[in-house]
Amino acid sequence: MNPNEPNRAATELLKDYNKTVLQDEMFDTFIAACEKASEPNEALRDAVSYTKEQGYR
Fold first, then answer.
1. What predicted TM-score, i.e. pTM, was given to this entire model?
2. Residue spans per domain, the chain
3. Torsion of CA 13, 17, 19, 25, to 10 degrees
4. CB of 4 within 8 A of CB of 12?
5. pLDDT for 2-46, tens place per residue?
């Protein structure tokens, strides 16, 4: 067995549980909030950099 196979299987399984499903109205509210958002502040840019450094996608 390929030593990476358990990791690959776990990743595929987690994909099924890491989804967010929004009803139409909630999605519309989310999109409206995104469209009204201002430029990212330093804290948000730092958070994005941190997650990239940690390997999050």
1. 0.39
2. 20-57
3. 150
4. no
5. 667 778 888 888 887 777 788 899 899 989 998 998 898 999 899
